[in-house]
Design brief:
Elements: E1 35-39, H1 43-54, E2 58-62, H2 66-73, E3 78-79, E4 91-94, H3 99-106, H4 112-115, E5 121-124, H5 130-142, E6 146-149, E7 152-153, H6 156-160, E8 164-170, H7 172-185, E9 186-193, H8 196-226, H9 231-239, H10 246-257, H11 267-283, H12 289-303, H13 314-321
Parallel strand pairs: 1-2, 1-4, 2-3, 4-5, 5-6, 8-9
Antiparallel strand pairs: 6-8, 7-8
Helix pairs in contact: 5-8, 8-10, 8-11, 8-12, 8-13, 9-10, 11-12
């Protein structure tokens, strides 16, 4: 949940820009407005909070970085100085980086289990382990609350534009409570099932496909570049023929343009996701050699001092290994830490 001062405002509207709700058709009627808490104001949490404010909800926000809370206050969100300030919420959305962060704000003394009222819904949009998600569902149920796992496919830009794909799972009654909000935060809501953990496994699987695509794109573009094919021509051929998916276009474009910063998905978070999916694969006895390889390549980025870059920097690593002058003019040199 760390960020520089400048990154706090990266997703916020410009001074003269107004955040506008989507058209009313298919949206939430005024009678459905709720008190919604947003816990965790990183790039994704900021976008969720802004869109919820734009939809007319009363939005309470909390983050351990007070500058993030203050920034959102200028656009209609209300600051909660501590977790207990979210006690009045009908729904609490958490957008946090890992299992430890979610455990700390939910299961610790004074966490969400203790402060949320009976009948309130915890919507976890974090990428966490299926095991933790299943435990949170049981704990909330025992406290008379509800839990929905709703991780997303997409980046902060798509979150701001409501173009995410939301993967939701949970008990039917909880899903129905959360559905109106989730349908407004993305372009499509996929209901995975009643087991909350299934949504988290689905999210991790999607990240494996993205990571392996980044690795293969990096290798292929390095080969073509070293073989004398202009990188932009190569990208045009690939993405306008058989390889025209969103992942190929979006992340392949970052590799071609050597645009690895600011990070949409920073390398440490990608390493965490691959670690989680490999743990699930071991538990289910499913060999995943490609995922194991890409995890090691991501660790290699950290070893080179490039841990703050976007995970598409797998293309940078492939170019460097090929002996190419990879992005020498557009990123800082590696920083080696003792």
């Amino acid at each position: 949940m760390k960020s520089s001062d400048t990154s706090v405002l990266r997703l916020l509207p410009r001074p003269n820009e107004t955040v506008r709700p989507l058209p009313e058709e298919g949206g939430i009627s005024p009678s459905a407005h709720r008190i919604v808490g947003v816990l965790g104001l990183g790039h994704m949490g900021e976008a969720f909070a802004l869109n919820l404010v734009a939809d007319g909800h009363r939005v309470l926000v909390f983050d351990r970085d007070p500058t993030r809370v203050a920034a959102l206050g200028r656009f209609g969100a209300e600051a909660a100085s501590e977790l207990a300030g979210l006690a009045a919420c009908d729904v609490v959305v958490t957008s946090l980086p890992d299992d430890d962060a979610v455990t700390a704000v939910t299961l610790r003394v004074g966490g969400l289990l203790k402060i949320m009222r009976a009948g309130a819904v915890h919507v976890s949009m974090s990428t966490i382990s299926p095991g933790l998600s299943r435990s949170l569902d049981l704990e909330h149920e025992a406290h008379g609350q509800s839990y929905v796992a709703a991780p997303v496919l997409g980046n902060p830009d798509l979150a701001r534009a409501r173009r995410l794909f939301v993967l939701a799972a949970g008990r039917p009654a909880a899903l129905e409570k959360a559905r109106p909000l989730l349908e407004r935060l993305g372009q499509r809501l996929f209901v995975i099932g009643e087991d909350a953990a299934a949504a988290n496994l689905m999210k991790l699987a999607g990240n494996v496909l993205t990571a392996t695509t980044l690795q293969s794109m990096g290798e292929v573009l390095a080969l073509l570049r070293k073989g004398g094919v202009d990188r932009h021509v190569a990208f045009d051929v690939l993405t306008n023929s058989l390889f025209d998916s969103k992942v190929h276009r979006t992340y392949g474009g970052k590799i071609v343009e050597e645009r690895y910063s600011p990070a949409g998905m920073a390398v440490p978070l990608a390493v965490k996701d691959l670690r989680l999916v490999l743990a699930e694969a071991e538990r289910e006895a499913v060999p995943m050699p490609s995922a194991s390889l890409v995890r090691d390549r991501l660790v290699g980025l950290t070893a080179c001092g490039w841990g703050e870059l976007d995970w598409s920097a797998l293309g940078l690593l492939a170019a460097r290994d090929a002996g190419l002058d990879a992005c020498a003019d557009t990123i800082d040199p590696p920083v080696h830490r003792l």
